[in-house]
Design brief:
It is a single chain. With 264 residues, the protein is of the alpha+beta class. It has helices spanning 15-26, 47-53, 73-82, 98-105, 167-173, 194-200, 203-225, 238-245; strands at 91-92, 128-134, 147-151, 156-159, 185-192, 229-233, 252-263. The protein has 8 helices and 7 strands.
Amino acid sequence: MSTIPHDYYLKFCEGKVLENIHEFHYQGNYLIHQALSDYSYLHNIQEKDLEKLTGNELSLYPGLDVSCGQYSRNEEELIEQLKRERSCANFIRKDLSFETIKRLCSPLLTVDENYYRGYPSGGALYPVETFIFSLGSPHDWPCDERVLHLLNRKKTFEPIQETSNTERLTEAILPHGSNIGTPSAAIIFVAYIPKTSFKYRYRGYRLALMEAGSMYMLLDLNSKALGLKNRVWSGYSDVMICKHLGLNPTLFFPMAVQFFGYQA
């Protein structure tokens, strides 16, 4: 499998498709700026109604349930291994070593001789790029830049230039007032839309979302095995993330941010 310039995919894309996907994606980029926090709101639903509507299951045919029965001890142990923990509510300030980051990312690095990775991707296109951002100062971090781009096939990390100062990128992914403490690291899943839309057009956007979800669930389970806490996050600024990573925000779409660290 050869390495080609990322903009080569644009040769095979339809401009109107990219424009429409971009317009749709950015309708979901919801973020209240600190300067407008007293004037902006997401909805006017009362707290008592939110509690009633949260955590429910949707029963289509009440009273016709069929029991799952009892599980064996081995089945229960397997279920426990595959069960995710609750999202971390409050991270403490503590560095996450580069060695731990490598172990955390290991499920994303499995590539066989036919270029298939350890998670599904429509047409084996793999449009989601992984950026690892250290919010601390671990002693074994390999370079001055604090953001690394994961290259799966090479099993290497590519330093992102001009990311030695973490203040602005931190503010882009974790705005003031987020109240979740101080995560040690963040993994940013960014879809390069031309890489999936040239073949699947509008459906490529859905496939990119599916791929990002598969990736962060793998990391969720692996972080549990490593004794880490994590939280999947959507309260970030797409444009500012792209700006501080040196990416074109009309082509690169941040799909999710996943924080990792230790719980208070």
